[in-house]
Amino acid sequence: MKIKLYNAISIDGFIAKADGDSDWVDDADFENYDSAIAAAGVVIVGRKTYEQFEGDLYEADDILTIVVTGDPEKFENSVEDEDVVAMHPDPNAIIDFLEEEDFEGAVLIGGGETNGLFMNMGLVDEVQVVVHPIIIGDGIRLFGDIDGDFETLGYSLSKVTQHESGIVRILYTRE
Description:
Elements: E1 2-10, E2 14-17, H1 27-40, E3 42-46, H2 47-53, E4 64-68, H3 72-77, E5 84-87, H4 91-100, E6 105-108, H5 112-120, E7 126-132, E8 139-141, E9 155-162, E10 168-174
């Protein structure tokens, strides 16, 4: 199972403003996002992020959405989409479930707490960040507030792509 983290970030390392707003994300980034989730067929997202963008980003046709939440039963009772599955914040259980469903990979797209949970356990194989030329100053960090020994995980720069709009896509892969 290959877990690929994909997030838009500001130059100062935030994936959203403090209130969760990410209206600053460049439209060119959405095309890359759509391609990434279409290739994997599954996206993993935290509950708060899912609820913020419900109907905009996650309910794509034929894409399974795993929503990470502390209360999966309550969440599932509020969602009618059969392609949305709520699971406890247990990355190993999520990966086991996806492997049982014959998925070979998944795209992890936040929020910060969910990213940090997977990263802290050393389960992220690729990190693709799309840096936007904006300074937010305060907000939600890429890996939230979860502590971890991230520097020992060993990632190498694989690719850098600059878009004409000024965003830069950076791909790191696990060594």
